Structure formats: structure tokens, C-alpha cells
């Protein structure tokens, strides 16, 4: 592969990976404007984020078999076209109910991009280059939550929230054209691959029965839920409680993203001295302590803008440390069905995350209490599952040094 072909292939795969995060983060600064336009509350607008997470979770399980049955590009074409149609639906939404439903459809389309990109890395590049390519994709993925809200804030103030979905739709169109003309089909369709429910369900059941998988998958999912709660509630906390502008919110979101992304990279250094299970336990314990302090302070209104930012920053650092190690430990026992385990892990993380964000819409409170309460609850549940589940693991498989490269 020439250097030019290599560069464009990685760029296209990175763009596919970033479509989902951009779809989540770019419209966050527009929450108050959407609420005003659709005659609802910001908390109700956050339900459109919950529906997006539900669509991503469902898509994790949907596209895996389709990509193996029909090849990589046909399901990818379907997903990107579906995403563009849903983006038009978001632009035309006249009620919060309509926006919630079309965001669900948009997520199912977006999920095809991320799942296909991961599969195509293994197809296109030699095995000894996969880690390097995944690292490049993670860097692109990490830049998304720093760029998207900032761009969204400027777009919202300059043109309005509708135009955010125009930009997202045009992004998907550009990616689709790049896939059609510059990305090769990397996997031949397999007509013998069965899409019958029974063998697929049995494969998932064999994975979830493994004690090491369910212990660290659920531990990581509950810890990771703190990130979903933060993303869903942050427009309320910063733009309604602390009255920051859409532009300023974009910058705050970008700064806080450094905590999550930076800690996941620091994790590589920690792995040189500590085992993954040690890092998970310590980081999750700190996450519980800080989230409880955040909850108590929210109840008694102790914290201002800067102290709130500092506490959330520490919690996101904990999430960024727990997540890759818990993911690596949950996948470590599997060799033959690692793809199934990975899909199930992603579905658990996204599914649980989407359920926790529903609480933000249900509470509908103009304070940081719902955010801090759910964050504290999920962190505590993660630690409880870890303490109980570790006792049931008879033969633990080490995650070795791979934890730094595994994450969602």
C-alpha cells in the first residue's frame, strides 16, 4: 500500500469512527435553543440523546452479523444513507417526540460506520499493524468531543440549532462518497453465514456466562455510565444552572474531555507498574468518593462553576482509567468468539448508559442534583459488582498490556 493510499484509508476509517461522537456532542450546545423552539424543557430534549444511545446499543448487535453476511460496504452504504435521511428528519422536527424518534433512527445509521470501521481495520491491514491503526483511530475519536461541541456552539449562535443537523448530514454524504470511490471492499460476502436468531443468541449466551466477562463488563458499564450522565446533563448544569453561553459551554466540554481522553492515555504508563485489576479497583473507589462528594455538595449548594468543573474533571479521569482496563479484562478469556464478546460489551455499555440518561429527563430538575445522584449511584453499583464478582472468578485470564488499546 502506498503512503498516499495508506493516509486516505486511515482518514476515511477515522471519519467513520468519529461520526457517532460528532452526532452526540455537536448538538449539545443547542439544547436550550431546541427546547425553546419545540416548546419543551432542556431535560426533555436530553431524551433525544437517550434515544440516540439506545439506537447505538441496538446497532452494535445488528450490524455484526450483517457485515459478516453481506460484506463490509453494503451494510455501510445502508447505514450512511439511513443516517442522512434521519438528519433531514432532525432538521424538519416540529416536536420533541419527532426529534426523539428520528434521533433513534439516526443512531442506527451512525452505528454502521463505527462497527464497519473496526472490522475493516482487521481486514485491510496486516495483523502487526492493527494496534498502530487502532491507536490512530482512538486519537481521531478523542478529538471529536473536543471539537464537536465547540463547533456546535458557534453554529447554534450564528445560524440556529437546525443547521447542526445539516452539517452532520453533509458530513455523512462526504464520508459516503469517500467510501464509494476510495475504500475497497475488504471482505467477501459469505452466503453460508446464518442470520437465524438461535445460533446468534447461543453465541451471546456462551459469552455472558463467563464470570470474568460479566464481572468486568458490568463493572465497566456502570463506571462508564457516569460519562453518559455527564454528557446528557451538562447542558442543563452549565447553561441553565450556571448560565454560560453556548460558545462557553462548548469550551468547557472540550476542557473536560481532556480529563477522559488524557487519563486513558496515562493508563498506558500505569500498566507498566500495576495490573489492570488493581487500576480498576483504585480508580473506581476514587470515582465513588468524588461522586458522593459531588452529590452532597449539590444537595447543600456548596459548589460554584469552577469547583463543579473540577469535580467532574476528576470523575471523568476515573472513568477514562476504569473503562479500558475493565474492557480488556472482560474480553481477555475469549479467542475464537472475541467479536461476539466485543459486540456484547459495547451493547452493555451503550444500553446501560442510555438507561441512566433517561433519569435526567425524568427528574427534569434545574439543578446538578440529578446528575450527581445518578453518577454516585452508578459508580457505587460498579464497585459493588466488582467486589462481589471477583470472588466468582475461578481462573482469571490476565489482560496483559492490551488494556491501553481497548476502549469505547
From TrEMBL:
Principal place of residence? membrane
State the UniProt keywords alphabetically.
Cell membrane, Membrane, Transmembrane, Transmembrane helix, Transport
Q: Which InterPro entries match?
A: Efflux_drug-R_Bcr/CmlA, MFS, MFS_dom, MFS_trans_sf
Q: Which domain of life is it from?
A: Bacteria
Localization (cell): Cell membrane
Q: Which residues cross the membrane?
A: 47-64, 76-94, 100-121, 133-152, 164-183, 213-236, 248-267, 279-303, 309-331, 343-363, 369-388
- Which Pfam families has this protein been placed in? MFS_1
User: Which intervals hold domain Major facilitator superfamily (MFS) profile?
Assistant: 9-394
- Topology with regard to the membrane? Multi-pass membrane protein
The Swiss-Prot or TrEMBL record describes its family as follows: Belongs to the major facilitator superfamily. Bcr/CmlA family.
Q: Which NCBIfam families match?
A: efflux_Bcr_CflA (TIGR00710)
What's the protein here called?
A: Multidrug effflux MFS transporter
Which species is this record about? Mucilaginibacter antarcticus
Q: What is the lineage of its organism?
A: Bacteria, Pseudomonadati, Bacteroidota, Sphingobacteriia, Sphingobacteriales
Amino acid at each position: 500500500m502506498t503512503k498516499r493510499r495508506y493516509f486516505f484509508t486511515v482518514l476515511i476509517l477515522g471519519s467513520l469512527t468519529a461520526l457517532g461522537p460528532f452526532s452526540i456532542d455537536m448538538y449539545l450546545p443547542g439544547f436550550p435553543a431546541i427546547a425553546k423552539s419545540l416548546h419543551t424543557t432542556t431535560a426533555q430534549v436530553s431524551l433525544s440523546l437517550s434515544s440516540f444511545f439506545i439506537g447505538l446499543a441496538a446497532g452494535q448487535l445488528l450490524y455484526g452479523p450483517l457485515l459478516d453476511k453481506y460484506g463490509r460496504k453494503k451494510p455501510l452504504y445502508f447505514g450512511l444513507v439511513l443516517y442522512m435521511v434521519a438528519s433531514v428528519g432532525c432538521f424538519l422536527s416540529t416536536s420533541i417526540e419527532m426529534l426523539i424518534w428520528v434521533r433513534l433512527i439516526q443512531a442506527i445509521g451512525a452505528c454502521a460506520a463505527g462497527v464497519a470501521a473496526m472490522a475493516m481495520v482487521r481486514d485491510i491491514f496486516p495483523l502487526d499493524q492493527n494496534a498502530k491503526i487502532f491507536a490512530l483511530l482512538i486519537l481521531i475519536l478523542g478529538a471529536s468531543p473536543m471539537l464537536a461541541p465547540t463547533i456546535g456552539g458557534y453554529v447554534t449562535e450564528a445560524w440556529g440549532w437546525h443547521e447542526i443537523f445539516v452539517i452532520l448530514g453533509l458530513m455523512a454524504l462526504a464520508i459516503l462518497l469517500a467510501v464509494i470511490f476510495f475504500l475497497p471492499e475488504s471482505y467477501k460476502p459469505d452466503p453460508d453465514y446464518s442470520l437465524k436468531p438461535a445460533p446468534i443468541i447461543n453465541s451471546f449466551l456462551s459469552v455472558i456466562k463467563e464470570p470474568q466477562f460479566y464481572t468486568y463488563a458490568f463493572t465497566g458499564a456502570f463506571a462508564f455510565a457516569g460519562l453518559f450522565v455527564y454528557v446528557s446533563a451538562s447542558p442543563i448544569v452549565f447553561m441553565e444552572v450556571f448560565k454560560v453561553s453556548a460558545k462557553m459551554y462548548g469550551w468547557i466540554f472540550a476542557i473536560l474531555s481532556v480529563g477522559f481522553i488524557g487519563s486513558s492515555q496515562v493508563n498506558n504508563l500505569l500498566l507498566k507498574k500495576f495490573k489492570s485489576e488493581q487500576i480498576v479497583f483504585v480508580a473506581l473507589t476514587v470515582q465513588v468518593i468524588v461522586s458522593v462528594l459531588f452529590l452532597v455538595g449539590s444537595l447543600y449548594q456548596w459548589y460554584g462553576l469552577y469547583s463543579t468543573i473540577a469535580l467532574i474533571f476528576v470523575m471523568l479521569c476515573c472513568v477514562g482509567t476504569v473503562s479500558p482496563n475493565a474492557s480488556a479484562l472482560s474480553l481477555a478469556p475469549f479467542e475464537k468468539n472475541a467479536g461476539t464478546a466485543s459486540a456484547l460489551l459495547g451493547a452493555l455499555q451503550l444500553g446501560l448508559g442510555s438507561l441512566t440518561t433517561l433519569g435526567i429527563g425524568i427528574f427534569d430538575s434545574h439543578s446538578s442534583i440529578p446528575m450527581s445522584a445518578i453518577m454516585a449511584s452508578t459508580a457505587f453499583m460498579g464497585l459493588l459488582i466488582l467486589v462481589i464478582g471477583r470472588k466468582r472468578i475461578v481462573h482469571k485470564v490476565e489482560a496483559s498490556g492490551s488494556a491501553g488499546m481497548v476502549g469505547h
